[in-house]
Amino acid sequence: MEYYQLNQANLIHYLQSLPEVQQKFSSFDHVEVREITDGNMNYAFIVTNKLDANQSVFVKQAPPYIKVLGEEWPLTRQRMVAEMNALHYQSSVCPEMVPKVYYQSEVLSVLIMQNLSNHAILRTELIQERCLPRLAEDLSTFLAETLFYSSDFALPSADKKAMVSKSSNQDMCKITEDFVFTYPFEHHEMNDYNPALSQSVIDSIQKNPNVRAHIAQMKYTFMNKPEALLHGDLHTSSVMVNVQQTFVIDPEFSFAGPMGFDIGALIANLYLNYFSHAHKSSAGSVDYSQWLLQTIDDLWYKFEGKFLSLWLEHEQSDQSAFMGKDLTGDSHQAFRHAFLKQLLSDTLGFAACEMIRRILGVAKVADFMQFEDQKLRATLETQALKMATTMLLNRQSYKNFDFISMSRF
Description:
- Helices cover 49% and strands 13% of the residues.
- Strand 1 (31-36) and strand 2 form a beta hairpin.
- It is built from 14 helices and twelve strands.
- The relative contact order is 0.12.
- It has two domains: 11-114, Phosphorylase Kinase, domain 1, CATH 3.30.200; 120-408, Aminoglycoside 3'-phosphotransferase, Chain: A, domain 2, CATH 3.90.1200.
- The protein has helices at residues 11-16, 19-22, 78-93, 122-127, 135-148, 157-166, 170-179, 199-206, 209-224, 259-278, 283-318, 331-360, 366-369, 374-393, and strands at residues 31-36, 43-49, 52-61, 65-66, 70-74, 101-105, 110-114, 120-121, 228-229, 239-241, 246-248, 256-257.
- Helix 5 (135-148) runs parallel beside helix 11 and helix 10 crosses helix 12 (331-360).
- The longest helix is centred in the C-terminal third of the chain and has 36 residues, at 283-318.
- It is an alpha+beta fold.
């Protein structure tokens, strides 16, 4: 079989040819296909039996180009292989938070998965000020389990190196290197600035040698620190939620990289959402802003605790330790403390890069873009940029998230 593009006209026939999908439907006589049009990279469809909404699948296909830009922007379909590998790994260590995969085809770059029809995109829920009591608990579990079990603390050395080699995702990593760590800081033609955002604020980042040197440090870390198998694009639109469950989706940017990149990207988008509410004076918005800050704190502290527990449990069950025998009884604890201190620093640095690129770069967030008043948006953007810059420059001195007093920004 050769690659061809699936569409609303040929998709049902394709699904009927797959035994793995046939069993999801009692009949294809009343099946409807709905294309999802808001994705940037890939084509996506929801296929549902109109007589039984529970009979439904989600279909995703990667074309050999960036969907929203067209064929003049070619991009290898290898990204779908990376997503398949990531989903397989994530479901092996954290199955309760990964959609079920019913069928996959590398030839057609297709994934057919569980349709999360009872869930909503996290970013949308946050914009609408919906509290999600399980959010920090669930996301900290996903981060701790996916990052720990693909690290050198859980894998034999040969297995870890094989994982790093297998998870190479060069084209998608290059997109991140350019659009997260490079273009937003050099006044690139693809950047998109709010006209109301002052040039002096933009210059305070793009023309500040100290800021740019720290950004370069984070870019270098991103490119040269294969600590674990990452999701690679873990923002609030890569999470589906309801009050009972949380799912993480779309790991097409997955690669072996620094743990702090996944944690930092997620936290950055939560902070951006915070700024979209914090300027409001209503009691509900004030309470929601405080819930967001508490969620960010809880996310880190719960992740830290779970990661440490997995580390200790693995060493006890495996009867071996990453650093070898502890002759004093204190060496392991000292190393774990040093490792997590550096991980916090990396997390803050990557969070800062993500916040800045979402404002100065081309990929905006709906949290800010919902405001038609450009002056208001510029005020929020300025506050977020000031916080991100402070976080970036001082990341190595912080011991936790208690340093953040939003009134300063």
